[in-house]
Amino acid sequence: MYKLQKNKIIITGLSDFNTKHILECGQVFRFKELDKSTYSIISKDKKALVKSYENRVEIETEDVEYFINYFDLNVDYSKIKKALSNFAELDKPLKFGYGIRILKQDLFESIISFIISANNNIKRIQSIIEKICKSVGYQIGDYYAFPTLEQLSTLSEQDFKNFGAGYRSEYLYKTIRLLQKVNLEELKNLSTQELKEFLLTLFGVGPKVADCILLFGCYKQDVFPVDTWIAKVYHDVFGGETNRVKISKQLVDRYGKLSGYAQQYLFYSKRELG
DNA sequence: GCCCAGGGATGCG
DNA sequence: CGCATCCATGGG
To answer: A225: alpha, beta or left, given left = phi > 0 and alpha = psi -120 to 50?
Structure first.
């Protein structure tokens, strides 16, 4: 539930919108907690301030339409959570991570960001991405836009190493060259499986990173990214299987179209609560 | 010093 | 196909 004012989205119904849970649940990296009640979030070349009050959240931005879509505000998450509550293993994760929403992020930004995320931790991922943005992204007021493909193409493998990307620097350099040959907007029309096959041809994109890109950058819900935390959850709840690709298939079979949502609740609560 | 982080590429059988 | 090994970097 939301209403609009000039340069402002006002959200009531806070059980379906919790800024901390949305931004800190591991799906996005370009956010900052400015104080207890204020976060900044940058997506592509756009920025928003998200302010929490007792009975509402206000999103202040120059591009209201963009952030209505970005925060998925036209989807009723109470229905999603009700459907998820049929699974006993989601009881605690749903209570803990209430107010999570899956952000509709930019595809190109998601590809680059999740290549960096591989075998890495969120603090370092944020630091590397910020350095890349600052180096070649457009400066807009007090922040830097996520670079365009053309801007990233000017960076060398050594540049990425200097930003701390380590061995992922080669993946980034090579994938950026591959992306110069395709039209990402056209690819969005492909089925989940076809899109995944394409993503797997990119350097530094394996099954898990591809699933993250599909979920966060292509709005595909029938995927289940399995990282170290989800592997731990699976071991606790189901046990047996250790092959992450097989675990992912089993969990997609279990949750179907709700897989992406279920995954995010399980990931967040496991990482925060252990 | 070790282990771990939103894993992937490579090589070997 | 499955599996082992290697890969930068910083924090605990």
So the answer is: beta
Q: Which nucleotide is nearest to A227 (CA to C1')?
A: B6
| CB A260 under 7 Å to nucleic chain B | no
pLDDT (tens digit, 0 to 9) for every residue of chain A, 274 residues total?
Answer: 899 999 999 999 899 999 999 999 999 999 999 999 999 999 999 999 999 999 999 999 999 999 999 999 999 999 999 999 999 999 999 999 999 999 999 999 999 999 999 999 999 999 999 999 999 999 999 999 999 999 999 999 999 999 999 999 999 999 999 999 999 999 999 999 999 999 999 999 999 999 999 999 999 999 999 999 999 999 999 998 999 999 999 999 999 999 999 999 999 999 999 9
Q: CA-to-C1' distance for A168 and B7, Å?
A: 11
DSSP symbols for A134-165: HHHSPEETTEEPPPPHHHHTT--HHHHHHTT-
Cα–Cα distance between A265 and A273 in angstroms, integer? Answer: 12
Model's pTM, two decimal places? Answer: 0.98
Give the nucleotide with minimal C1' distance to the Cα of A212: B6
Protein-to-nucleotide distance from the CA of A224 to the C1' of C11, whole angstroms: 28
Neighbours of A36 (CB within 10 A): 7
Sign of CA dihedral A215, A176, A158, A152: negative
Q: Could you give the 3-state DSSP secondary structure of residue A39?
A: strand
Do residues A172 and A178 touch, judged by C-beta distance below 8 A?
no
Q: What's the start-to-end Cα distance of chain A, in Å? A: 32
